């Protein structure tokens, strides 16, 4: 396993990380703990979760699983996207952050979180408020480093400037989607990361399962596939929809490239994310032990220049071939913000 520095913190994290989004929701506690043990034994030392995953169950299970090995784990969690409609219970205000971190520490059965990440940007909470609160938590020893998730390049620059102005802790990482068919990260965010010594943790290297090789344009998805179980809710995965034909034709070209190189499409997809110099770690989000074993089996794959050039020819650098891959919609994209007021 290769280990890389988390920004300029001096902390080293594994080139692959275990994501806990399925733990306690789509994956049982027993199977989740088994996968955590397998990942740690393989050499992974970074485990990522959120207080949102499984409504807190993911954190509870991870805390239970790593209790005896806590000193060897770099534990990352997120806040700010809690699934609640209670007023002031899901935000990034000082009050909300403090409540969230205390609850996460209890579930994780630990005194500190190595990397505490803002799950989404908040238009109505100033970065000063967020960063000053997180800075206090670092001083108190409850968290060690701070990061973000699903942020844009300009937001990262703004936050860095505020940290410099107040001489306080700065974000050291950003977690963002990245795959062969969603290369938007390369257009701006990767350069921002380089300029500010930010670590990029990339998730969804298989684009929600699209790059597993099991979907064919115009054909019904297998009954046990994610596309079938989420039919009607995740149209981006549906190979039967005419609107997705172009995307699945692109995926078919990538499949042919993988076949010609004698490798699995899924392995090629994960290896592709590792090739960008700004990527610190690629998150694996297995739902089953079999899926984790498949990730591990392909972990040593490295792509040659000829394969990378061929991928560039199919999906140009910096491009995203499907806007349905957008993981969140910013406030300024609402109709009210896009239209002038008409009296």
TrEMBL record:
<dbReference type="Pfam" id="PF00248">
    <property type="entry name" value="Aldo_ket_red"/>
</dbReference>
<dbReference type="InterPro" id="IPR020471">
    <property type="entry name" value="AKR"/>
</dbReference>
<keyword id="KW-0560">Oxidoreductase</keyword>
<feature type="region of interest" description="Disordered">
    <location>
        <begin position="320"/>
        <end position="343"/>
    </location>
</feature>
<dbReference type="InterPro" id="IPR036812">
    <property type="entry name" value="NAD(P)_OxRdtase_dom_sf"/>
</dbReference>
<protein>
    <submittedName>
        <fullName>Aldo/keto reductase</fullName>
    </submittedName>
</protein>
<dbReference type="InterPro" id="IPR050523">
    <property type="entry name" value="AKR_Detox_Biosynth"/>
</dbReference>
<dbReference type="InterPro" id="IPR023210">
    <property type="entry name" value="NADP_OxRdtase_dom"/>
</dbReference>
<feature type="domain" description="NADP-dependent oxidoreductase">
    <location>
        <begin position="17"/>
        <end position="314"/>
    </location>
</feature>
